[in-house]
Amino acid sequence: MGLLTFVVFLPALFGMLVLLIPNRWANIVKPIAAAGSFIVLVLSAWLYIGLLINGQGFGDVQHPTWFINVPWINATIGTFHFQINYALGADGLSLPMIFLNGLLTFLAVIGSWHVDKRIKFYMAMLFFLETGVMGVFASFDLFLFILFWEVELIPMFLLIGIWGGQRREYAAWKFLIYTLVGSSITLAGIFFLYVQTGGTDASYQHFASVGSQITGTLPLFGGTISLPILLFLLLFAGFAVKIPVWPVHTWLPDAHTEAPTAVSVLLAGVLLKMGAYGLIRICLGFVPHGVEQVAPVLGIFAAINVLWGAGASMVQKDMKKMIAYASVSHMGYVLLGVAAAAAAAAGGANLMQFREAALTGATLQMFTHGAITGMLFFAVGVVYEKAHTREIDIFGGIADRMPREITLYSMACFASLGLPALAGFVAEYLVFTGSFATLPVQTIFAVFGVVLTAGYLLWMLRRAFYGPLNMRWSWLTDVNSVAEFLPLATLIIIIFVVGVYPKFLVDVITPSLHQMLTTMQSLTLH
Amino acid sequence: MLNLTPYILGLPLLGFLVVGLFGKRMSKAVIGGIACSAILLAFLCAVADFFSMLGQSVANRSNDVTLFHWVASGTLTINFGLLSDQLSAVMLLIVTGVGFLIHVYSIGYMGDDEGYWRFFSFLNLFVFAMALLVAADNFLFLLVGWAGVGLASFLLIGFWYTRPSAVAAARKAFVVNVIGDFGLMLAIFMLFKFFHTLDYSRIFLGISQRNVAPSPLPPPSPITGDVLTAIALLLFVAAVAKSAQLPLHVWLPDAMEGPTPVSALIHAATMVTAGVYLVARAAPIFTAAPNALVVVGIIGGASSLFAATIACVQTDIKRVLAYSTMSQLGYMFMGEAAGGFSTGIFHLTTHAYFKALLFMCAGAVIHALGGEQDMRKMGGLRSRLPYTFWMFVASGLALAAIFPFAGFWSKDAILAAIFSTAQAHTNPVWWILYAVGILTAALTGFYTFRLIFTVFLGSYRGTEVPAHGVAAVARNGNGNGNGSRNDPLANVHEVGAAMLIPMAILAVLSIIGGFDGIPRHSAIGDFLAPVLGVSPDLSGGLFWFSLLLSLAAALIGIGIAWVRYGVRQHTFAPARGLVKFLERRYYIDDLYNAVIVVPIVAVGNVLRNFAEDAALDGGSRGVARTVGATSRGLRRLQTGYVRNYALAIFVGAALIVLFYVIHP
Predict the structure, then answer these.
(1) Residue range of the domain that includes A399
(2) Rounded distance between C-alpha atoms, residue A293 and residue A342, angstroms
(3) Which of B17, B71, B160 to mutate to test the interface with A (most CBs of A within 10 A)?
(4) pLDDT tens per residue, range B212-258
(5) Is some CB atom of chain A closer than 8 A to the CB atom of B574?
(6) What pTM did the predictor assign?
(7) Rounded CA gap, B489 and B429, in Å?
């Protein structure tokens, strides 16, 4: 049945197992959860490293690895033939995300050691969430994809709504409504795409080979609209909410701020990446002409994302909210990379390497942003669990009391602001190198976001952690438990390794994207 | 040819890691020993490389090693490679050599500081980053080193992180430097767009051949002069930020918040010299973009004059030196702009000797006075600090460019290059720059000796000096006096050997360090010529005219200082008029605050309060409220909990999947 099936469903199995633990044995819930999520991590790492060592290559959408394909639902309703396969596979675009999901879920379980409220149910929800996200990245059937997409919603809604902060219900509902509205439009887009491409096959391979042949226009509101653009807009709606793209990003600061630490980590670390993944895999892969035609506008939205997020970060009073807006800003780089890769597809061989660099950078940014922002949220969590506040100005000089914590926190900030030799730089650099050649104006604006990022993150460090110690906090203690230290230490190591030697990620990502872009280019030239 | 460059980088990095990770549990002797020997060994490697290079014929002096492939994405390949050539050899000698002396000095200066291990690990990091910057063989790893230098300076300027002013200064330095990085990144994107590579050698080859033969990969659009001008100007933006030139100089004076050895390191061996190095390294680009060179000259000249005027009225001993650095860097850029790239590097080397020494002397004074930095509260220290005094004078003479001290030769080489270029060009700007150079020479003489006379001559004007270490005082802001009532200077004593020995070595270098660049027999100029080209020079009567003119200007400056501050006790009246204007640094900091910082924060507030909350969120909140209310109503109809339904749905879905997987 394939390893991927295990990676996808093992978490759900562990989730049910945890639920079955009798209440009087409640103290083994956390160890079991940790062991379970560690097994999934090892499996997902094996998928990645095993292939890397074997040198089999990671294939592309036409040649996925660990591929299994089993017919599932086959129904004919009137003239509408409905075919869903249980198809899982992986390539260089999805494998880094699968590994990241395994890693961050494990760290989230470890980082939730202090949670006591209905711990069984909490851990089970983390596991169900992991299954949903794994499924999104591993699906190779578009209907299966959207099914997993919806599955992920429920545990996240409950995690925010039950274990969140004071405004948790508001935040949970806002998250749910935004995502549902977006994903229902995407679902409509999926049906539309399915019909337009023959209506018999929902496999990724099928869409990837025929999707780019969609042409023509449709009448709309008395005018006409290009069919690829319409398809892109429909499909993109759900992804845009998830990424999130300005102006549908406002659910994110609330959800991030209200969610408990570990859930914020997963939300920023992997859930946002589902949107970016959908944008690349489905929009760019299946309706390339749609993306190509709107690419400059997409680039403008990317620049707005970057600058708007940075501007809003600058004035936040809550650390977590600041990091949430920083996420909005930094996900803009992903958007910019995709826009740049789609722009000027007809530019021929000269532009190919720039488009490839931009898309590689965008994919890498999905991974590095997950690691960096995850680390930032863990770091805020440590402070919050001790001090029970996250207000930047209320602190002052606590570096004196928490040297280890603040050192790690500062390192995460430097990674976030794109310091070379740390992970964020590699991704940003690749995106900008590529996008400067195809979308120079948007890029210049976006690069300016780097300056603003340095400004607000260092400002936060300065106000909250450095300067004279505010004696009110003289009782604070440093990071000293494994549960606090392990997530921070693991992530900073990954951030360093990727920053210094990104090749082991780039070598995996690029071949898959190369195929996508050459297909796009050859079709454009015809 | 011997190539030990990887070790020159590796040793300081190793020192940084060892001291940074384990330093907390080490004794101070071990920490100092590891950190200093890492840099000393790196220096010895640099010396070995240098002599090995001298043994080679000129054609074989460049050596490029690729250590590993960093990123290979399609045809975009970036390697981590190290270039060993004449320019990087000179820079590495300065970085590790002067860096080592500063490390030794720090053993004495930071001896009683709690953060001893942190300090030395950061110092090693600083040297590593700077060595990477000058040894990289492509622009990307130059950027890596560039940003690393920015990080190290941030950590060291803000070293005393409990002092709000230090933390603010650190952040200011970092953010201004990131503005420079912004320029460097854009330049790199343009280079890659037009040359399809970031390697120096291939880019420079592309420039030299751009009108001859097409490159293997045709660029998307031809490399025109405008493109090269744009790239050169973007590179110069980075140089301006790092080397503290107008208008991005504001971080440098504030950077004095760091411990004094840090100031010495930033001003002499690392950091600010990076901009000068960048322009020299990119000499082929700048040479192909003459309009950009004019901009470099104007910015350099303006900064040089601007900073010198401010230095004339500052009363903080370190700020005088800080503005002096900015002014001297302006000279280096003027020299480079005039085509004398090697004169810029030559002045960089001599400046490293005497500016490091000036800061060390200032540190010795501050150390002796228990943390006092205000010149108005000093005076008459000559008899108490005799060695420091004489070394201060030696480095001061070098800074003021008096024959035969080191600065004399290098400054003269720059002025000669400008003069010669002015003769060859019709553009009057070069004559103006030459005049600025002479005027600044006079101002340099004035402010340098104003400083020396005020601090060392006359009588002591301060309060009683407590018997506390400088670090303790620096941290607490003040100390408790327990010296003799009769002699406020009873606790003032000459610094220890760990500080004096590096100072003495630099004093020797300040005196003789310019002899490798004697006009028309310039060893350093000839050595660098294969990389940087031959600097324009003067001959015959004009040569002597320029030489004597700058010397006379400096002597006049010193003379005025003697009249005002030397022969009689000067009373410092509150500043007004022009002096006030200069003392407030032309109000540029205030202007930036009003024009940049305040509006950005205001825009952010508008985003948060209006755009986010009211406009974007208001609408969706209405929808959410409606849906939420409906859902709550629906939920009341049911008896169970949402999560149970969710679980049921999930389990059901999972079972269906399993069923179909097992029975297809």
Answers:
(1) 3-525
(2) 8
(3) B71
(4) 544 445 555 567 778 888 899 999 999 998 888 888 888 888 888 88
(5) no
(6) 0.81
(7) 51
